[in-house]
Amino acid sequence: MSEHDTPAVKIADDPAFKLPTSLSSLSMPLCIGGVAVLLIGWACGSSVSAKFGMSAYLTAFMFCLTIVLGSLFFVMIQHLVRAGWSVVVRRIAELYMVMVIPLGVLFLPVLATLLFGNGTLYNWDDPTYAEKNFLPLAIWTEKLRWLNQGWFTVRAIFYFAIWSALAIWYFRQSVEQDETGEKAVSDRMQYWSGPAIMAFCGATSFAAFDWVMSLAPMWFSTMFGVYVFAGSVLAAHCTICITSFTLQRLGALRDEVTVEHYHDLGKFIFGFVFFWSYIAFSQYMLIWYGNIPEETHWIFERQLGAWGWIGIVLILFHWALPFLGTMSRHVRRNAPLITFWAVYLLIMHYVDLYWVIMPEAGSSMGGILGVISSLFCVVGMTAVMIGLVLRVADQTKIAAVRDPRLQESLAFENI
After folding, report:
1. Structural domain of 202
2. Is 29 within a domain?
3. Closest CA to 99 of 49, 138, 65
4. Could you read off the pLDDT of 175-214 as tens digits, one per residue?
5. What is the 3-state secondary structure (H, E, C) of 288-344?
6. Residue 132 exposed, middle or buried by CB count within 10 Å (0-12, 13-18, 19+)
7. Domain total of the chain
8. Is residue 370 a part of any domain in this protein?
9. Distance CA 171, CA 148 (A)
10. Which pLDDT tens digit goes with each residue over 95-125?
11. pTM over 0.85
12. Can you tell me the distance from the alpha carbon of 76 to that of 199, in angstroms, rounded to the nearest whole number?
């Protein structure tokens, strides 16, 4: 028996499809306050060391970027498979995916560290790194063919160009359909979704190698790109769930997003908790089994001291607890409960990125200042992103109001 009555399709200008005023008024304060908090966080980290400050900044940047990239993938995969259920929440992902453009600007401080050429953030940027670590010159010379300031910068521009082109095109097509309602727009977005996803996956994997894995330039893992991808998609589904719940609480999309949509978002959250865990275990198991010094040192360093305890926290609280917590159908069909788990998992996603990135900044967490730096950086960066999302959302609809599959999405029921 149906647990909800299918709501009627509302007119495009219905207030349910507009960003609540209480949220739109937060846009500027979040942006200004976020920048201030971000700068304070970076300054606190820099008082520990220049490397620590930039590492905290990079961790916050990757937290926001993974949400954005996961949202971009969500939009493209929905078009690829012609999904109907997701139409009422897809615009939320579209609003987040276009944040890849301002994040391109926020990446400039990372590139700026390369101007100094002393390993401020990336060890390979230090001319004395090979000598300090007794690396064979021939091997290091070959490594620097890929890891050098100029080529690194060109690749970064290329990655952002791919992501930005995809995000802008899909966003414009979707907004255009709000006006025209033409089915041809959906067909066009579906037609290009296959090549778009291939370009996206290539850029995302290599960006993960360049920006995170190269922090330890002699370490390598062919699974690392998938590891970052898994966390990105998990974070995106959590963000869509939280945003949907918040909008409904403030009066928007109240009839459109039903328990069925939360159920599906919950299923994806549950599935990607397991997928992230599978990739993390597979990467660890293969490195442990191979027992190659160039591979094992990265894992070994993260098993020492406080980093080892964070690793245990990830096993217990990024996998075991949310795996059990989101397994129940009852939880997935309870909007407040699944939203709680979404918030929880976003926090654990940050802890995961912290464990991956910050050990390369030093053997300690930087004491009180280090903790303040990390928290302020991620809060500030996230606030800036949310403020910009609200600004864009205030200028458009918060749902794809004339998508030809809108009625299918409204009537959607899980079996």
Report:
1. 15-410
2. yes
3. 65
4. 999 999 999 999 999 999 999 999 999 999 999 999 999 9
5. HHHCCHHHHHHHHHCCCHHHHHHHHHHHHHHHHHHHHHCCCHHHHCCHHHHHHHHHH
6. exposed
7. 1
8. yes
9. 34
10. 999 999 999 999 999 999 998 888 999 999 9
11. yes
12. 11
